[in-house]
Specification:
2 helices; Hypothetical Protein Pfu-838710-001; globular; eight-stranded antiparallel barrel; 50% strand
Length: 157
């Protein structure tokens, strides 16, 4: 079984920018229910389709397959529900872990989230100084929910 065990955090500074080069991501959802999603995305020149189902707050089953980028682009343009998610992703290595930092664009501009994948729900890990408050388990920070209720529609935190 393919598992994704992930923590999400807000970011409190742009210090990560000097540690990695960003890559443009564009993604949308063919289906988005509370416990499962089917996502299509393009990453640079590659396309992917991903199926996820929730096991717990931190853990999801995840199945991801590379597909032709032209197929992914067509699905994004013609089949996805809600506005698409566009973001710049930085992959930052820190003390043996890789942090993925997403700077959202478009309707979600202004939101920056750092994610870290771990191998068990009880695993502890070092947190860089640019990582702020944890938002794991808060549904509105899920990309699938950001496509339905973008950050620009939120009230100030």
């Amino acid at each position: 079984m393919n598992l994704e065990i992930e923590h999400k955090f807000l970011v409190n500074s742009f210090a990560y920018r000097s540690l990695a080069e960003p890559v443009f991501y564009r993604q949308g959802y063919l289906a988005a229910m509370p416990d499962k999603i089917i996502r299509v995305r393009t990453v640079a020149e590659k396309g992917y389709i991903t199926i996820k189902s929730r096991i717990s707050t931190l853990t999801r089953k995840e199945f991801e397959f590379e597909i032709p980028s032209t197929d992914a682009a067509q699905m994004l343009d013609e089949l996805c529900i809600g506005p698409l998610i566009e973001k710049m992703r930085y992959k930052v290595d820190f003390e043996g872990y890789t942090w993925e930092v997403d700077e959202f664009l478009g309707d979600n501009a202004g939101l920056v989230i750092a994610e870290i994948e771990v191998t068990s729900e009880s695993e502890t890990f070092p947190i860089p100084e640019w990582v702020g408050r944890e938002v794991t388990g808060q549904p509105r920070y899920l990309n699938s929910n950001l496509s339905k209720q973008p950050f620009k529609t939120w009230e100030s935190e």
